[in-house]
């Protein structure tokens, strides 16, 4: 009801070109940096849709990976506004872009958790905000409390892949059994996949049967 009132009071216009009707018009959506084709194992952009050589030689701890976009403008700007400027409306906008393109329908969407200290400083978890909107749009269950980040790991920006893995080792705890469940782990950006990999290991130990790593965008 509230959404309907807001829509009547403030008619939607495209974020990028100003065309009335929606916050992402069809023409602008078509021009977004969609991550297709990409490796189905790690979501790295490539010229074909088969598993890349790295995933074939050393499969990641999740069963599949998917990101809607490459981390390029204007999507990159939207993610930054959400993550660093508190523009929670970006989570709703990105959720509407992602929802029709999800690669599967898992039992549960599990957002990557923030440590309680970082959550207290920021006031929200950007992955949790994205998961909330995806759940609302698709009807897929979301549990933002099931996974806990039990160590306040340093920021991953600027670290090598090896340093990221070392930084995150044992960082996550799953609060209850996941026996036989199909999970989608959700983050805003996938860089090396270290965060999603470590969370996937914790979920596998808790009994998850199938684990997919999802993110809004992937670095090259």
Descriptive key words:
220 residues; alpha/beta; Rossmann fold; 2 domains; two-stranded antiparallel sheet; 9 helices; 17% strand
Architecture overview:
Belongs to the ComF/GntX family. InterPro entries: ComF/GntX_DNA_util-trans, DZR_2, PRTase-like, PRTase_dom. This is ComF family protein. It comes from Solimonas fluminis. This protein is α/β, with parallel strands linked by helices. It has 2 domains: 1-31, no CATH class; 33-218, 3-Layer(aba) Sandwich (Rossmann fold). The chain contains 9 helices and 7 strands; from the N terminus they run αααβααβααββαββαβ. The strands form 2 sheets. The chain has a 5-stranded parallel sheet, sandwiched between helices. Helix 9 (194-205) links the parallel strand 6 (182-190) and strand 7 (210-218). It starts with a helix and ends with a strand. The model has no long low-confidence stretch (mean pLDDT 90).
Summarize the structure.
InterPro entries: ComF/GntX_DNA_util-trans (IPR051910), DZR_2 (IPR044005), PRTase-like (IPR029057), PRTase_dom (IPR000836). This protein has 220 residues and is of the alpha/beta class.
């Amino acid at each position: 009801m509230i959404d309907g009132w807001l829509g009547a009071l403030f008619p939607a216009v495209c974020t990028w070109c100003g065309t009335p009707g929606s916050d992402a018009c069809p023409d602008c959506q078509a021009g977004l940096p969609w991550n297709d084709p990409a490796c189905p194992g790690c979501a790295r952009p490539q010229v074909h849709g088969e598993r890349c050589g790295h995933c074939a030689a050393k499969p990641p701890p999740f069963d599949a990976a998917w990101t809607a976009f490459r981390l390029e403008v204007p999507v990159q700007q939207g993610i930054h506004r959400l993550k660093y400027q508190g523009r929670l409306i970006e989570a709703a906008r990105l959720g509407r872009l992602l929802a029709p393109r999800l690669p599967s329908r898992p039992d549960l969407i599990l957002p990557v958790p923030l440590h309680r200290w970082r959550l207290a400083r920021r006031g929200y978890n950007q992955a949790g905000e994205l998961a909330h909107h995806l759940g609302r749009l698709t009807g897929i269950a979301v549990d933002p409390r099931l996974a806990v980040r039990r160590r306040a790991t340093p920021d991953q920006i600027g670290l090598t892949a090896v340093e990221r893995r070392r930084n995150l080792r044992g960082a996550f705890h799953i609060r209850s059994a996941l026996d036989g469940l199909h999970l989608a782990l959700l983050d805003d950006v996938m860089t090396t996949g270290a965060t999603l990999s470590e969370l996937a290991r914790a979920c596998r130990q808790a009994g998850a049967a199938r684990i997919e790593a999802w993110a809004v965008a992937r670095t090259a």
